[in-house]
Structure to design on (398 residues):
């Protein structure tokens, strides 16, 4: 039977890759609902090709969308708006699968709504899990949601873990013979830059990732290694493992997407060409496998695999994230919010690349941490952290 899919963030890089996978399997999947934020023209093209039943845009974009749809003679699409609209499609009774691919904290409530509605949730929006960790995982267990990782590293780890690993006791200890997780990082475009050179890199350089084509925010996060920091936190929650058992390994070729080590000396790796269609297809069809257009790995071409330890002096964001995970409570949400503000400020050339981590560290130091007992407290911490980070950005140096 065909599965109805809702794509939160359809106009983004992950949203587009998701459509590419779905397009290859029209009998198995239908595009039921899609959401966009600013790229309305692109959304109209998607409507023309996929005929979703519902689309969601900000209220301020509804008129523009209606006009463009009418111009293209596209009818019969229900338009919802704002966060209420995002939540409505995420939990819609006719939806089977939700792709959570909104970037940043804006994806938290819609993703949580999908989880609480017991959907198969394909998680790309790592910030949502970083912010709400225990609450999101608890909601998935309570409501029988299948929360499957799309982030390539976590999808790789999921593929290398023993079957039923996620259903066993969640106490922070590795189990079923697992000894540790090796989380790979490409190192980003500035892997070999000196600290001095890092002071002067531009947003355009930061957004040009050597192996992956991604949205701006995650591209900058990859360049600072904050992406790996967020992924470290993501891994701890998804796999119920303490950060102590997650080692970051820089692997510039991005052919191995992560590894799991076992007590008997085995190390299992998942490998493939760097294309998000592979983890998306895996999460869509798991435990089945479906075809993608991604060519098989040619080891005679990709014959060199290098590994090194991350340099946290040049890339302090990784240490800040590890510390936030150790501290727990609201610290990861504060880290995430401050990072979102700092990345936006860097993209607008208000701060230097190296100041992104400074803004995050300052914000973490300014705000009193406490237990992340409810979504309301997490959203409050997110708002406070944004205000502190914004203030620091505007007044820096004074
Ligand atoms: P993009 O910036 O390419 O896309 C983001 C999507 O979210 C767009 O559809 C955008 O709409 C929408 N959006 C942005 N802001 C809001 C908002 N305030 N409210 C509602 N919707 C919003 O990002 P990516 O696709 O690269 O990344 C999406 C998520 O997936 C991120 O969390 C990222 O960390 C994660 N991820 C991405 C990977 C990749 O390869 N790209 C790999 C692993 C994880 P519009 O474009 O219309 O403005
Ligand atoms: Mg990743």
């Amino acid at each position: 039977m065909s599965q109805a899919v809702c794509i939160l963030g359809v106009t983004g890089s992950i949203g587009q890759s998701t459509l590419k996978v779905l397009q290859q399997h029209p009998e198995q999947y239908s595009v039921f609902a899609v959401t966009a934020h600013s790229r309305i023209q692109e959304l109209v093209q998607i409507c023309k090709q996929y005929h979703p039943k519902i689309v969601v845009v900000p209220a301020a974009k509804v008129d523009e969308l209606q006009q463009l749809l009418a111009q293209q003679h596209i009818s019969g699409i229900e338009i919802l708006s704002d966060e209420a609209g995002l939540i409505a499609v995420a939990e819609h009774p006719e939806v089977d699968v939700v792709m959570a691919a909104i970037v940043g904290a804006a994806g938290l409530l819609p993703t949580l709504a999908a989880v609480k509605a017991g959907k198969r949730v394909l998680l790309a929006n790592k910030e949502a899990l970083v912010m709400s960790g225990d609450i999101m995982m608890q909601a998935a267990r309570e409501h029988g949601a299948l929360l499957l990782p799309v982030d390539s590293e976590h999808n790789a780890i999921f593929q290398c873990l023993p079957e039923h690993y996620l259903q066993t006791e969640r106490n922070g200890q590795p189990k079923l013979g697992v000894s540790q997780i090796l989380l790979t990082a490409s190192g980003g475009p500035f892997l070999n830059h000196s600290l001095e050179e890092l002071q002067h890199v531009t947003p355009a350089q930061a957004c040009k990732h050597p192996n992956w084509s991604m949205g701006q925010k995650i591209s900058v996060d990859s360049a600072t290694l904050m992406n790996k920091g967020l992924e470290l936190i993501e891994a701890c929650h998804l796999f119920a493992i303490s950060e102590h058992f997650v080692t970051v390994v820089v692997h510039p070729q991005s052919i191995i997407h992560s590894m799991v080590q076992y007590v008997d000396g085995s190390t299992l790796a998942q490998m493939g060409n760097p294309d998000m269609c592979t983890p998306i297809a895996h999460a869509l069809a798991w435990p089945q496998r479906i075809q993608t257009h991604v060519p098989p790995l040619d080891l005679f071409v990709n014959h060199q695999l290098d590994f090194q330890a991350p340099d946290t002096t040049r890339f302090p964001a990784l240490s800040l994230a590890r510390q936030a995970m150790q501290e727990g409570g609201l610290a990861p949400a504060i880290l995430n919010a401050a990072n979102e503000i700092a990345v936006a400020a860097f993209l607008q050339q208000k701060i230097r690349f190296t100041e992104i981590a400074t803004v995050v560290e300052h914000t973490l130091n300014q705000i009193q941490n406490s237990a992340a007992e409810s979504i309301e407290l997490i959203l409050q911490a997110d708002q406070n952290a944004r205000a502190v980070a914004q203030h620091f950005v505007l007044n820096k140096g004074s």
In short: The chain has three domains: 3-149, 151-315, 328-398. DSSP finds 16 helices and eleven strands in the chain. The longest strand covers residues 178-185.
